[in-house]
Task: structure prediction
Amino acid sequence: MSSTRPELRLPKMPKGLRAPFRIPFLRTLGPGSVSSLLKIALDVAYVLLMFITAVLLLVLLASIFIPLTDLNITVSNDSGGTQQPLTRPLLLFGVGALTAYFGGFLLILRNLRMIFRTLTIGDPFRPENVRRLRQIGLILAVVTGGVWLVQGLVAARLAPGVMDSQGVGELLTPVFSVLVVFVLAEVFKEGARLRRESELTI
Result:
């Protein structure tokens, strides 16, 4: 006496829904993809930021020679403000800090452009991208620490009681961003290793 088990059949999906939903013109990698559009946006931002940094460098050089007679600087908030004489060390410190800030993001954009160039050609897992991501994380950490330090110095020396220094809680988002970049660097490192092993296997 033989028994047959009933066969379980799943209902067939409509023909148009069998393949994953895709939008042909929204590819993430390769020429004509979203990565190539972002690469163009990064190129424009890089040129603009390069111009701003160059102007700040010229202002920094001019700050060494321009006369500063009877010039004051006012730092204010909603409840009031304070006025300080504009000295040459203060001017050089302010313009130099601003130049370093934009220069740091210029270096970040430079590395991002190189990374998105590899995404545009469809080859992201390259060893040099690991180095670029680590540089981005390091520069972002330096810029974040520099902003925190400068704002604390300004709040303590230039505008006490008018400007507040950044608290530790305000560092959580930048620190999280730095950690994410370093984690991405390790992901790219693992991807590059797997790619190299597959090439050796073939």
In short: The longest helix spans residues 88-120. Strands lie at 72-77, 80-85.
